Amino acid sequence: MTGFALRPAIEADLPALRALMARAIAELQRGFLTPQEIAASHSVMGLDTQLVADGTYWLAEAAGGELAGCGGWSRRRTLYGGDHSTKLRDAGLLDPAVDAARIRAMYTDPDFTRRGVGRLILEVCEREAAAAGFRRFELMATLAGVPLYRACGYVPVEEVRAEPVDGVCVPLVRMRKDA
Fold this sequence. Notes:
Elements: E1 4-8, H1 14-28, H2 35-44, H3 49-54, E2 57-62, E3 67-74, E4 101-108, H4 117-131, E5 136-142, H5 146-151, E6 155-161, E7 171-178
Parallel strand pairs: 4-5
Antiparallel strand pairs: 1-2, 2-3, 3-4, 5-7, 6-7
């Protein structure tokens, strides 16, 4: 996990973050989803700029300044989906005493997989959420993300299918972890 610098994402990072997400969805979901499900994933997943505005979205940069990955956490009710996912969004605040913090929009650039980027970002998100009083974490995992989250102590609680996009439903797994 060395060689990567973490910093909060800012508005100027949005184009690069969107490009990384599109590439990660297109390449890293292969072998887990059908081509039709991958195409639908672009409508289901993506960047929620509320995370950037809240200061809870992180990016990892390689030594050369390349964007290696990104991810965040939220104290808001929305569990997954980007700005375009209006049906899924709920900006209401969670109660740390009873609700789980949301781990959100975790992506690794395909050129940086298996190098600890996702784990590094996940750890900072969990630390920050715990410091904000949350005792549990929850996320909606892609099938490609499930192995990482299991390795980090998350357990599946529900298999779901996202709302259909052009008749195609993307399989997802809701997962939880205690702090």
